Fold:
Amino acid sequence: MSAQQLMRPSAPRRWYADPARLALLALLVSAALCFLLPLYVMSLTSFKSMEEIRNTSLFALPPQLSFAAWQAAWSSACTGVACEGISAGFWNSVLIVIPSTLIAVGLGALNGYALAFWRLRGAGSLFAVLMIGAFLPIQVMMLPLVRLLAPLHLVGTLTGIIIVHVIFSMPVMTLIFRNYYAALPRELFLAARLDGAGFLYAFLRLMLPMSLPMLAVAAIMQATGVWNDYLLGLVFAGREHLPMTVQLNNLVNTTTGTREYNVDMAATLLTALVPLLIYALAGRWFVRGIAAGSLKA
Structure:
């Protein structure tokens, strides 16, 4: 082959109407519409006044953007007997999510590391018990946890709801990190031990820096799970620490006065905003961690 032939740009690849490709494209477009259409309607409704909602089509654009419903949802909408919006629930959720995520991810990584590299007696049985806990419904363990935490005066406190979230996250967090570390060469751990590194030193200086993508996956899963939780927050948080999802339910289901659909939609979007931002900002880390886990499985 001559040099001119090598330097000649290749012809653009033509797209052809393959029935399989068309079917796949139609399926993806349909799935995207199923998710985006409700979000579109909710967004339009949140920027309309109640008169515009009654007199215009569901899909009609608002004549002018109004943030009055968003302001009311944040600071003045009634969530039960209190008319302070969902701002208090937002900050309660932040106070619950941050320590619940940091503690759960840290303990899950340490548990997974210990079960993968520390050949202690009964490690397999302990791992099996943890996996059983991962598949038990939350409702089954609700009453025993209340009976356990009530004598310690932890029910209805911020510390109590954080402990409950950490307990329920341990099986999944341990499974993620145990499978990730078990696929790593054991020689890395043995070499660190031969160099004089202790068990925790090897974990903090060697294994933890190697698992940054998996840490991102675990943190995203835990943060979004805790933020979207309703049942545990309702039972264990108490009136002073109700998360955003509970206050959203109180706002939407309030039966007194006129039902303000624009305020309801604005409050729902405010509640969903944090998980959406987490995936938007850390989505590439999530994909990288999932890919690393699948390659090492």
